[in-house]
Amino acid sequence: QAVVDFERLGEHAAAFQGHDVGFCCLGTTRAKAGADGFVRVDRDYVAQAAELARAGGCKHFVLQSSRGANARSRFLYLRVKGEVENLVQAVGFDHCTILRPAVLLCKRQESRPMEWIAQQFLGAVAHLFPTAYSVPVEVVARAMVACALQPGEGKVKVLENGAIHELGKA
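== Protein HTATIP2 ==
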């Protein structure tokens, strides 16, 4: 494990050397970082990390994105997620797996009242429709590992929420 300064990520290229698979779950919120900070973290840092990983020999990059990611979206969050998906694909990994989970169900240390309310509601809905609107972060993590162990055919693979649930159960 290496601690890096994302503002000087290029100075930490050695941390990205010699890995076959790269996992990226990096992200922040607009509320926490502002619009410019959100773009810097969720797009720019991720794209630079992918480039460093590829230069360091990484063959398979596994990226956590978001349901609805679209580089042409009017919504900043979905647009940035779509842009970073395109940037990561353009790096040229042998395999690139993009996971697009719905609302992530997890316990957070910081207080996000609206997110907490949404998670309570979606947690209850998940009992009726387990793969429709949300996914526990543990399931996403297991799906990411499964993708790395069995990358499958093709250069780019995109997994939507239902597929993440299926793969994360294994």
